[in-house]
Design goal:
alpha/beta, Rossmann fold, six-stranded mixed beta sheet, 13 helices, 48% helix, 19% strand, elongated
Length: 334
């Protein structure tokens, strides 16, 4: 998550009418996306979809790319091209996209390292008939986007914590909520949590920036010292929550009396949920559907079929639904 900070900030800064956009697309379903793309190969044409993520070395990104490849193979007339952009290297990404434009791919799906630096390439691609889609947000003039709903994520994990507190008769509950204030576009991941907590009588004793394991550990350790008996810790990302779980172990706090929850559905987060104990839930993105959406939404844009803008659903991963948790974990196999 830490590596994504710069690219996320820049990408979301380019978003157009984020609130209105969310209202327009939030009801688009996976079935609608799949149905629209299902007859892609019926006309006998072949297609090339190129996908560039700014940190392709990250485990979750590798799995998303695998699912994109699987969807392309399932359709049968589609090839997905991947670049090797790592650590938000702008030069790598520019070189890859220039190569794809020269090759004449049908669509490019990109999480930009620097959106402003890629605008000339966007114009060049679209002038040559290449569809331009962005990942996580909509750049001005883009032909589509593949995203997920941060408000839904915050609501899911907050409600899980509320339900846990009620089920365990936890009164006057105290909570730590981690944030990432330099990225206000992600704020629903924590503002929805604090809103739902306030509505249910849970006191947020601290909000502090932490998106990675190191800062999650540091912040949680400090807050637990300041507020003995802390009941709930919500990470704006699973990495922060995994760090907080380490803090619980280091401080000797009783995991049986605490709720730790994260967001994204990372392998470490899901594994911690599966292990039981304090880490009770993650608001998990369906990465198998996310990978397939990269392909289908791009093809829909190429063929001028709706939808080409959509969110990928987020679900609650917990021991209460072991089959779903097992399915989410299986997404990281291979």
């Amino acid at each position: 998550m830490k590596k994504l900070t710069k690219s996320l900030a820049l990408t979301m800064a380019m978003a157009i009418g984020a609130g209105a956009q969310a209202a327009d697309i939030k009801d688009v379903t996976i079935d609608q996306i799949r149905a629209a793309a299902s007859d892609t190969c019926a006309d006998g044409k072949t297609y090339q979809v190129a996908y560039s993520h700014s940190v392709s070395e990250v485990a979750i990104v590798k799995q998303v790319r695998r699912f994109a490849d699987e969807r392309a193979a399932q359709l049968g007339c589609v090839t997905v091209l991947h670049d090797n952009t790592q650590a938000n290297n702008l030069e790598q990404q520019i070189n890859a996209i220039q190569g794809w434009i020269t090759l004449g791919v049908d669509a490019i799906v990109v999480l930009p390292v620097e959106p402003t630096a890629l605008q000339p390439l966007q114009r060049q691609a679209q002038a040559q008939g290449v569809k331009w889609l962005t990942y996580l947000g909509k750049m001005d003039g883009s032909d589509g986007f593949v995203g997920f709903d941060h408000a839904q994520s915050g609501q899911i994990i907050a409600q899980a914590a509320v339900d846990w507190a009620k089920a365990n008769d936890v009164t006057n509950a105290k909570a730590l909520v981690t944030t990432l204030t330099p990225l206000p576009s992600l704020s629903p991941r924590w503002t929805e949590v604090t809103r739902i907590f306030a509505e249910n009588g849970i006191t947020v004793v601290s909000e502090q920036d932490a998106a990675d394991q190191t800062n999650g550990l540091r912040v949680a350790e400090t807050v637990m010292q300041q507020h003995p008996g802390l009941d709930i810790i919500i990470g704006m990302a699973d990495d922060a929550a995994v760090g907080a779980l380490r803090a619980i172990r280091l401080t000797g706090a009783n995991p049986d009396t605490m709720f730790v929850g994260g967001q994204d559905g990372s392998l470490e987060g899901l594994s911690a949920v599966n292990d039981g104990g304090a880490y009770r839930a993650s608001a998990a993105i369906l990465i198998n559907e996310l990978g397939a959406n990269i392909v289908d939404l791009a093809l829909n844009a190429v063929r001028n079929v709706e939808p080409s803008f959509a969110y990928t659903p987020t679900v609650l991963a917990s021991k209460a639904d072991q089959p779903l948790l097992d399915k989410l974990l299986s997404n990281y196999a291979n």
